[in-house]
Queue: 2 jobs
Job 1
Amino acid sequence: MTAPDDMHRISPDTRHTVEDVLEYARRRALYEDVPLDKPMSPRDLERLASGSITPEGIGSRRAIALFENVLAPACVSTDHPGYLSFIPSAPSKASLAFDVVVSASAIYGGSWVEGAGAVFAENEVLHWLAKEFGLPAGAGGVFVQGGTIGNLSALVTARDAARRRAADEGRQTPPRWVIVCSAEAHSSIASAAAVMDVDVATAEVDANGRLHGDAVARVLDDHGDAVFAVVATGGTTNFGIVDDIASVGAVARERGIWFHVDGAYGLAAMLVESMRPVFAGVELADSVIVDPHKWLFAPFDACALIYREPALALSAHTQKAEYLDTLTGKPDWNPSDLAIQLTRRARGLPMWFSLATHGTDQYRATIEYGIDLARRIADEIESREGLSLVRDPQLSVVVFRREGWTLADYEAWSSHLLEEQHAFVVPSSHAGEPVLRFAIISPLTTFELLTAILDTLD
Ligand SMILES: *Cc1c(COP(=O)(O)O)cnc(C)c1O
């Protein structure tokens, strides 16, 4: 007979379950050679893994075995050093181990009353980042799920601030609000605009794909008061191109328009001393994002969203409800109130623990490694017959072509590479041309590993 507390009290069964799960987590976290793995068809998974949900349960032993032997191998390991597609992940050992602690501790990260200690630690990280980005001491924010939610939350705050200003100044709000960004801006900006039911006006980029202030100024001339936010990108996802943030920010400032910097992938590079000039102007931002799950060595999923004036985010995002009055009536720092969310995991803690453990110098050095490796492999690509760079890498993304190959050639090569469990490199495209792309995040990705991949392109 089952008792209601069978899953919760400490018994030999629950004890074994916890120990078995943590033992598996321990093994996975300490793999010397992470297997790359690959997806499986729905039909194969149906055959091998269905039927796990039953009235009586299959027991933790069987469930773990199913995960370890069938389900996990059907997921590509994004932390494999040969995972070079999209933006890989490379959580430090400290951060991924601490993620287990976050789960084990049942922390509610939404309010100060409930999660003060966790919120304090997360804020230590956010304040350090804000300082690195040149933002004033009052800047602050919250870790949200990802860059998409970070951008959306920042833009919602921007529109709210614009609405309030218009009201204060006795102006009508425009029939359609407009966001200005470059055509190279991340797809999440268009997605945010769709959710917010606002328009996007794109400004021209230069021959290197960079957005400059003069192009933004021209678009602003066309749209006037309808524009509530200008977005610059601190490292595009496809190429790692950093806009001319200083001139874009200056124009936004001059016109009194909210300036948002989307640095989900690339802004981490600003932590490297020699790269700081590339990001000049970030200090003008009203809001910025950077994803720790990309180039700050934290596990999925975390985006650091930072506001110059967090009070503006509070007025845009604080949810009002009778059962929440006890929280919202106080001057406490409640992370829930700064973005589109209510209940939240203290998802900044894994990064806090790793940063506290290793120190900021280690972070700078690990990011710099990726930038240096990108330059080295770019030189190697240029020196090889039949290969050419599409553009010099600015951060840690290297885009190149194999002369004479069609998309079908790239795709066949890419599938073979994954099939052989060698690496995960999917084709991308640029101006209609299919290209190859290495996105380098992991310090375990070596020059030798990359040249071995190039060797297969002969
Ligand atoms: C990855 C990325 C995003 C989206 O972030 P998610 O965490 O995937 O939601 C937004 N902007 C840029 C520039 C990115 O590289």
Job 2
Amino acid sequence: MKIDTICVQGGYEPKNGEARVVPIAQSTTFVYDSAETMGKLFDLEESGFFYTRLANPTLDTVAKKIAALEGGVGAMLTASGQAASLISITNIAKTGDHVIASAAIYGGTFNLFNKTLRDLGIDFDFVSPEISAEDLDKAFKPNTKAVFVETVTNPSLDVVDLELFAKVAHAHHVPLIVDNTFATPVNCRPFEWGADIVVHSTSKYMDGHAVALGGVVVDSGNFDWTSGDFPMLTTPDETYHGVVYTEQFGKAAYITKCVTHLMRDLGPQQSPQNAFLLNLGLDTLALRMARHCSNAQSVAEFLEGHDKIEKVDYPGLKSNKYYEKAQKYMPKGTCGVISVFVKGGKKGAVRFMEGLKLAKIVIHVADARTCVLHPASTTHRQLSDQQLIDAGVAPNMVRLSVGIEDPEDIIADLAQALDQV
Ligand SMILES: *Cc1c(COP(=O)(O)O)cnc(C)c1O
């Protein structure tokens, strides 16, 4: 099936007489008629639902759709994008291990890595998203367990050279984890470029309507975990009577451990109601992404020529340094988010934002309604000046998330707000 079809039909094949639309299994628990079956479920000898923290039919169906969209062997929904990033790393790295991450990543991910996971003893090095293969190679240590990047970075909109990162990571027998939130599988499928694991904040384009928080981890099934560097996957897990994930689950070893180990122990499960809403969003993802991208292209071209604007970063603009890379990795378009640098410093940026009428100031991006955000004073306010520069966040930068309204109305709103700067 093509991607547009998977958006609508993927993951769910109702049988005779069953609901046409994925039903909400709003139940924490499930019934069995024998204790023996229940025991087998607990030992991972049989698969089935018994408690929603581990698995639920609604979550399972929506996860299957996303796995199909990304071309992976399996996926696990989480309560938020943050939980997905947390689990993607801690599934394979523990105290004493090391991870290489792009410096240009979502502010929340940066704090999770640089503070919380560092406090738990996982060491991180942050590298430029434009690092050369040679320098990336030098960043590896004997205890490096993963490389983490974003396809199109939030908010600086760098386009990462996925093939380069995958190649160098694989030379060190280390998986590449890609946060594909902004591109979505409609515009880019990182597994086709060598990525091993994909994570998303489904709170953004996948849900698309800003109604439900969520995240997802997707496993390509392609990474060979048996190098000896990932004992948590290749040696017996005593909490499941000595199961060895790579032996029992093969290509699905990583994603199975995400569910049976970390979802069980940490518990950041998505609610069935949110998964239902996410699935409604996925139905129209391909349609919406095309519109987000064409609207953003028109808006970026309008802003680039405006005399109140210092600079516009959008990979769809020919002037953008990532134009070629975007054409290679995302020929259908990147996303609807644009970074706008307003003349007059922070003051100019704030005045522009406060003059907008249609576009609202919110802490969100990537939904149907056009909105704006000032990263330096909100999502990235904890970062030091140097960290702000590394993450590509300037004081006069406004992150504009172009929605799916009529582009003429969006441009008219921006024009009248810029008149007031
Ligand atoms: C929003 C976002 C996250 C975090 O997701 P939540 O659902 O808010 O927890 C992670 N990565 C990217 C790229 C994001 O935009």
